[in-house]
């Protein structure tokens, strides 16, 4: 049994024990996953009260050194294993656990970016070239690298079909600018990405919801909407749908593509999360390359500040989208596209992607541990989970009570299209927590809330 020697530690006993845990981890006497002595056993060994050990373990957990598992004990969690968020100097882990935004897990990218910039700066010919005007759809070598990268999602494409944009959001905007006019009705999943709805509002479009199930868009509902509205566009996310985590099967994708052909509807396939998913079905753009505009970006996999996205479009509308790109921004920054290309060609991009996936697996294991007993859609590779609340909870009440306990989440109202009747639900973005310990602290609170009933003072009658 690990027993700390407290003679050279000063201050209150519980602080000394927490300091001893930190020292033992630094010296390698305690390693990730090691189970600490029970409160009673360590209290008896050190001659202190059980309350002192409880305070010591709580202090160690606050520092991110220990994870307490209900009914199992306290376990060492080293900063590396926690997937600790890279902290800017002066930042500290906040008391509030904010699970509202779908962010890539924050890791230190400074060295990678610095090295790429240094290599580029030493190549004066290349540097001067990318500082000049380039083709609106992007430099050929940047598009070739992007086509190679998108191949990891199962999309077989070529540089001539691809355009480089200022991120996925920009790609959605450009595609809708090219395909629609103000006042047009367009279709989307009934519960969908808020960024898409922001674009439709900006462009004066009228989105209509298509009913969903656990695989996303229901083909019969899509066909009924085509008959009723004669839309030009369907927007959807077939892999790790935001917010529901729905994944379309290959058969479902083929059915949706067939309906789109029959009713002459363009499909915008948002595949921003597809790189994260293992063994994903083939992209819609692979099944129906004549009807699908494929969108992907570096933001969720490599780094949010690498504002590079990619659009793969059928020949029929390729020029319309490139015209929208040129009219809005002339071209995407070749400097940023060059950095992204270098990361892809060197293998660093794949390394960073695998790093994200490994951390997501660990975080989603925590999601399953604390919320698996509820109606919660969790995927090992997803940035988020979708929790349908048990009765009598309403999302507004749950959000308020969670926030009072320093946990922030968002409800289904942020994702509903038009007047669609969605279940009372919340999205939990595990990727935005500062560390696994930080996430676990929030999940404990949410699990406790779910086992309770709403406080009467906040009930809505």
From TrEMBL:
Record GO terms (molecular function): DNA binding; DNA-binding transcription factor activity; pyridoxal phosphate binding
Pfam family name, one: Aminotran_1_2
Keywords, in A-Z order: DNA-binding, Pyridoxal phosphate, Transcription, Transcription regulation
Residues of the HTH gntR-type domain: 11-79
SUPFAM superfamilies: PLP-dependent transferases, Winged helix' DNA-binding domain
Cited Gene3D superfamilies: Aspartate Aminotransferase, domain 1, Type I PLP-dependent aspartate aminotransferase-like (Major domain), Winged helix-like DNA-binding domain superfamily/Winged helix DNA-binding domain
Family per record: In the C-terminal section; belongs to the class-I pyridoxal-phosphate-dependent aminotransferase family.
Annotated protein name in UniProt: HTH gntR-type domain-containing protein
Organism whose genome encodes this protein: Oceanospirillum linum
């Amino acid at each position: 049994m690990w027993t700390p020697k407290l003679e050279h530690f000063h201050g209150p006993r519980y602080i000394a024990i927490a300091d001893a845990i930190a020292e033992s981890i630094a010296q390698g006497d305690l390693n990730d996953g090691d189970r600490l002595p029970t409160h009673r056993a360590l209290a008896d060994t050190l001659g202190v009260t059980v309350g002192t050990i409880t305070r010591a373990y709580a202090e160690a957990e606050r520092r991110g050194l220990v994870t307490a598992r209900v009914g199992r004990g306290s376990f060492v969690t080293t900063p590396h294993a926690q997937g600790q968020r890279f902290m800017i100097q002066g930042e500290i882990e906040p008391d509030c656990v904010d699970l509202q935004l779908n962010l890539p897990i924050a890791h230190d990218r400074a060295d990678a970016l610095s090295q790429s910039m240094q290599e580029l700066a030493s190549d004066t010919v290349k540097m001067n070239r990318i500082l000049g005007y380039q083709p609106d759809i992007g430099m050929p070598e940047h598009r070739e690298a992007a086509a190679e990268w998108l191949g990891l999602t199962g999309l077989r494409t070529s540089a001539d079909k691809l355009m480089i944009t200022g991120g996925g959001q920009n790609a959605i905007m450009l595609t809708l600018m090219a395909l629609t006019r103000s006042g047009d009705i367009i279709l989307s999943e009934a519960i969908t990405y808020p960024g898409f709805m922001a674009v439709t509002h900006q462009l004066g479009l009228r989105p209509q919801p298509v009913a969903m199930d656990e695989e996303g868009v229901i083909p019969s509902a899509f066909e009924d909407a085509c008959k009723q509205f004669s839309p030009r566009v369907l927007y959807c996310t077939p892999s790790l749908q935001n917010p529901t985590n729905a994944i379309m099967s290959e058969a479902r994708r083929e059915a949706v593509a067939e309906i789109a052909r029959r009713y002459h509807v363009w499909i915008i396939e948002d595949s921003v999360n597809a790189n994260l998913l293992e063994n994903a079905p083939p992209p819609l753009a692979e099944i129906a390359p004549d009807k699908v505009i494929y969108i992907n970006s570096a933001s969720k996999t490599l780094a949010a500040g690498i504002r590079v996205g990619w659009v793969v479009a059928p020949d029929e509308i390729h020029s319309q989208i490139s015209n929208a790109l040129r009219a809005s921004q002339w071209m995407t920054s070749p400097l940023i596209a060059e950095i992204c290309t270098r990361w892809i060609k060197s293998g660093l991009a794949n390394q960073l992607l695998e790093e994200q996936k490994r951390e997501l697996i660990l975080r989603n294991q925590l999601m399953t541990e604390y919320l698996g007993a509820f109606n919660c859609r969790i995927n090992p590779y997803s940035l988020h989970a979708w929790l349908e609340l048990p009765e009598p909870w309403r999302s507004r009440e749950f959000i308020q009570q969670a926030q009072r306990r320093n946990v922030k989440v968002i409800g289904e109202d942020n994702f509903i299209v038009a007047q669609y009747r969605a279940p009372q639900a919340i999205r939990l973005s595990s990727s935005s927590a500062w560390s696994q310990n930080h996430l676990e602290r929030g999940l404990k609170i949410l699990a406790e809330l779910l086992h309770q009933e709403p406080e009467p003072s906040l009930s809505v009658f």
